[in-house]
Amino acid sequence: PLPYWPEFSEVLFTTVNNWDQIQKFKAKDDDLLICTYPKSGTTWTQEIVDMIEQNGDVEKCQRSVIHLRHPFIECDWHIIVTDGYDNLCKINIFSIYYTHFPKIIYVARNAKDCMVSYYHFQRMSQTLPEPGTWEEYFENFMNGKVSCGPWYDHVKGWWKAKDKHQILFLFYEDMKEVSEELRGTNLDEMILDKIVQETSFEKMKENPMINRSTVPKTIMDQSISPFMRKGIVGDWKNHFTVAQNEKFNNDYKKKMEGTSLTFRMEI
Ligand SMILES: *[C@@H]1O[C@H](CO)[C@@H](O)[C@H](O)[C@H]1NC(C)=O
């Protein structure tokens, strides 16, 4: 049976009402937090982590849709689901995924691809504001006028935090490269091989536990743009004009001044 999906207004309502509690969240010793700016590889990392934790057992990773296996901490959905394993279990946002990995995995994706991906996501998301034209969105993203605020502050903040806390800082572009190198090679490690296969973009796009096909159209209208759209590095080149690229680069230089954080815009 498919999990019950709350109406967005309901989600908002409980999140706002429980904000104090959400802010007071304290991780347990064996909790793992996956943190990202939107559209930077969240779903991908969730599936990889779950596959590792389940020792490459595909069936176990099918126990529920991904956004319920690893709930979002900032969305207080007390969702009642029947997931086929437990008759009835209450998924509580505060019982986060636990494992023996580093405390926090942060995934960062270059700003240009992130912007393009976010634009398409916002076009089909029925719960975020209309993104407007690409030209308008381009300006809004640079000005941080998007959900979750400026990309620049997000990545710089986490980059700094990694020196003080136990954070595994990953780049989407590296993950892409590594997964492509590993694919098709004759690995001794059968499990690793399986994880690489199962977490490829093509496979995940056709996995109903991942591709959001159970999310109603009133939340995500995938006829506008699929949730799993392209999953590549460098798609920004199909969107940025030469003038936009120049403008972006100048602005980027200013906003990213003083940080040692560097991104690859292509691989
Ligand atoms: C999700 O996966 C299912 C099963 O493979 C497939 O039928 C469906 O078209 C996919 N949905 C999207 C939006 O890609």
UniProtKB/TrEMBL annotation:
Keywords: Cytoplasm, Transferase. The keyword Protein biosynthesis does not apply. Residues 29-259 form the Sulfotransferase domain. The keyword Transferase applies. One of its GO terms (cellular component) is cytoplasm. Its main location: cytoplasm. It is found in: Cytoplasm. GO terms for molecular function: sulfotransferase activity. Signal peptide: none annotated. Its EC number is 2.8.2.-. Coiled coil: none annotated. InterPro entries: P-loop_NTPase, Sulfotransferase_dom. It is an enzyme of class 2 (transferase). Belongs to the sulfotransferase 1 family. This is Sulfotransferase.
